[in-house]
Amino acid sequence: MYAFTFERPTTLADAQKLAGAGGKPLAGGQTLLASMKLRLASPEQLVDLTAVRELAFVRREGNALVIGAMCKHAEVAGNAEVKASIPALADLAGQIGDRQVRNLGTMGGSVANNDPAACYPAAVLALDATVHTTKRKVAAADFFQGLFTTALEEGELITQVSYPIPKKAAYMKFRQPASRFALIGVFVAQTDQGVRVAVTGGGNGVFRHQELEQALTRSFTPEAAAGVKVSADGLSSDLHGTAAYRANLIGVMAQRAVAKALG
């Protein structure tokens, strides 16, 4: 490994100061450390956030569930409040990676990294969540901006994400066997304003599927989802699956997610 300095602040104020001075935030390290080993990233200073426990919390605020950025996947999956308020979110967290990843990776790290096949962005977008940072609040629709790209500015840290509680919701994921990332993942959320459907694993980033949303708003049933022909245009095609294969998976996972949400 090349030389770098390592800082481990215990307060958000200290973490913000270090990040603002050019330090690279390190949450769970599931992506950054691998990138450093491959020499794809070479930060001169790492700012380890794991000791900033004020960012590790879950609480209910009115009709929203607020989760701190440093909550680990395993903590979200096992939290009683998450299970009671948005069980689909607990289920999603429990499907991420393997046990080691779930006990190290964090919600904030996943959202900030915006991997095109990550699970959390699908929940953030489908639930119309709000990302809170050290500088501002960002709506889900404005936060994710493409391949590994978000609205975060240099030195800006995610502090929490506020998820509105839906009437019904579910997440279904078809795993890539080796990485356990989503080859396709579909998060379906029924709200008073209609149905939102977010897809991950299909392209350069998470996106909403309007045709499925319209069909499911009219009739929240697996049959309604089955009646939507999902286009392969713009979807990824690689050694794991063609664009046409992914398009078919979106339809299948949407049907299964609706069936799951209906119980």
Question: What percent of the residues sit in helical stretches (DSSP H or I)?
Answer: 25-40%
Overall CATH class of the largest domain? Alpha Beta
Any idea what the CATH architecture of the largest domain is? 2-Layer Sandwich
Q: For the terminal residues, how far apart are their CA atoms?
A: 50 Å
Per DSSP E runs of 2 or more residues, the count of β-strands stands at: 14
- Quote the average pLDDT: 95
Uncertain spans: none
Shape: globular
Q: Return Rg in Å.
A: 18 Å
Tally of helical runs: 12
Strand order, largest beta sheet: 4-5-10-6-7
Which fold name is given in CATH as the topology of the largest domain? Uridine Diphospho-n-acetylenolpyruvylglucosamine Reductase, domain 3
Which structural class do you get from the secondary structure elements?
alpha+beta
Encode the helix/strand succession as letters: EHEHEEEHHHHHHEEHEEEEEEEHHH
Q: Classify the beta-strand content into a percent band.
A: 15-25%
Biggest β-sheet strands, sense, barrel: 5 strands, antiparallel
What is the total domain count? 2
